[in-house]
């Protein structure tokens, strides 16, 4: 179980650019639950994920993952607990390293260094099998540099990387936003498969209202650093994309320029 308790995040405190990114967010997420997170630009969505990943340390409140209080732990200290996939496929991997080398690094997240060889024969075979499962033919390109792959191929490899070290929490930050619709669908199906097979507790930020309702068990909407909508169960099942867009409009108090962006 994940618990955010009265989380406050202030960037640039005491400067003219001071920004309250999260304002007393409290949220409990059951183990194995898949939560979709929506909200306008600057609402605090990435910050919410950052607080769990450890790259944002809150100025107030407490975050726990299971029995572990991670509030003040940095990213390295919780690397074995939390995995993250970003919008930019290269943000979570190293473009100059091969697919295989990236997988080797990902598999060692949260492990103490020097105990096991990063690329032993067994590990190599395991990586090859995991990549072959993607059905993209990348198992024959294990030595290719990551930055030679297409955006969709990189996101597929990034998802495999995120599930290699056995982290039970998966954070997805608009991980299909830069992909064409066909590839976005492929990556979402893969995401769904990994999440359900591995029973991952998942938070997925998306600007697509369609994705927000089609995937997961629960949807939350952030606005100005606060949770303004939290739906699950039957009330979520009956919710339509149009309802979400109407709420979005009401909360933002303005007309959206491009509904297609949100629906797609
Ligand atoms: N490191 C930082 N330093 C200063 N301000 C920041 C920092 N990170 C985020 N912010 C500010 O905090 C607010 C929340 O940012 P956040 O990235 O969480 O929003 P978001 O909902 O993910 O937005 P988007 O949909 O545009 O990605 C924004 O006003 C942003 O400019």
From TrEMBL:
Q: What is this protein called?
A: ABC transport system ATP-binding protein
Membrane-topology annotation of the record = Peripheral membrane protein
Q: Which organism is it from?
A: Sinorhizobium kostiense
GO MF, one term, reads: ATP binding
The similarity comment for this entry is:
Belongs to the ABC transporter superfamily.
Report the superkingdom from the record. Answer: Bacteria
Could you tell me the keywords of this UniProt record? Answer: ATP-binding, Cell membrane, Membrane, Nucleotide-binding, Transport
- Broad class of where this protein is predominantly found: membrane
Record's subcellular location: Cell membrane
Q: Which residues form the ABC transporter domain?
A: 2-249
Pfam families the record matches:
ABC_tran (PF00005)
* InterPro entries for the chain: AAA+_ATPase, ABC_transporter-like_ATP-bd, ABC_transporter-like_CS, ABC_transporter_ATP-bind, P-loop_NTPase
Is Secreted tagged as a keyword? no
